[in-house]
């Protein structure tokens, strides 16, 4: 990406303890580089030091890139807007894990590289939809994962996994996680799934507490595959579809959850070499 960066959106997690100080420090660094700052209009009273205030979506669309100050949850929140406006994201970690963040707060001086050429990495996303009796009920896009799982009732659910029209396996489990490479270091990893290099495009389907030795392993699928999951409740309990911890939908027996690679992407700014693996080593030891 060229160094013609003139306007940068600041997207802070206002609930973080040190966020106000981080916004000031990043703003001062950008000012020293001759870069104007943009913030959402709703943050004008709380953060009055930006050069421009606009409605949130317009702020994304009007920026050359967005600096996200927070943790992975804040990055996910920003990604759901940025994928619509093609705005690159640069994360400054103020959270606990920060797998998606390029920089830690003490590395703000590396923002000097915005005045040079730098790279952007395209991250695969998922299109997730629910079909019932040949009608599409709902659809959304996910950067991390889609999860089909039991609700509050402590009983397993039946889950049929179909890839490109072929039945792959039938599970009795607490649920299934379908993750992108970006999401492979989140819930999927905790459930025993592999960590996938984020430079790859692939689906990972990982069972949650499968009641089967043969069905307890995670499976990888081509990004060109179309995944369908058909759930059934064994004791009439709820079955819930969630995506990126943001969207939730209650499923009926025999609904079809259709998951495929999205045409949308999230673009991550890269100004350090292999920041993802550095974060893994730091967080996982």
Structure explained in plain terms:
The protein is α/β, with parallel strands linked by helices and 285 residues long. It folds into two domains: 7-117, Rossmann fold, CATH 3.40.50.10330; 125-263, Probable inorganic polyphosphate/atp-NAD kinase, domain 2 (Tumour Suppressor Smad4). 17% of the residues lie in helices and 41% in strands. The chain has five helices and 18 strands. The strands form three sheets. Strands 3-2-1-4-5-6 form a six-stranded parallel β-sheet, with helices on both faces. A six-stranded antiparallel β-sheet has the order 8-7-18-15-10-11. A six-stranded antiparallel β-sheet has the order 14-13-12-9-16-17, with no helix packed on it. Helix 1 links the parallel strand 1 (7-12) and strand 2 (36-40). The longest helix has 14 residues, at 19-32. It is elongated. The chain starts with 6 loop residues before the first strand and ends with a helix. The model has no long low-confidence stretch (mean pLDDT 91).
